[in-house]
């Protein structure tokens, strides 16, 4: 029993200093002329390893569509790192004006022109649609890494 208590105590001591929450990724502004004074926005002149831009868009329905409402954004991902960057439609989410997060996987295959699953070399970019089910106004689009850590966030332009 003493060994179990000692092991649990050691685990508690070792994990007490761990910060399990990540710092939020700065939100890239929707347009260069827009001020960065909004909460969560990046300071002016900030460079991002992954440049992400987004604009509201409409999607053409695919043959797999169930006819429900879709809210979409056209995204452009630019790899500004020195490593390969994986892009996948499942790595995106859209946050609406009511701060509700919508998963892009909910509408996968229901529209044409979705962003491709690909790897971008340094300097390359990919453009395509990201949609989620529901009728809402997109405010922020976020992209995660393959390990589902948030990698980039951007305001959605109208």
TrEMBL record:
Start and end residues of each DUF4352 domain: 66-129
Record carries keyword Signal: yes
Matches recorded under InterPro entries: DUF4352, Immunoprotect_excell_Ig-like
This protein's UniProt keywords: Signal
Record-linked PROSITE patterns: PROKAR_LIPOPROTEIN (PS51257)
Protein name: DUF4352 domain-containing protein
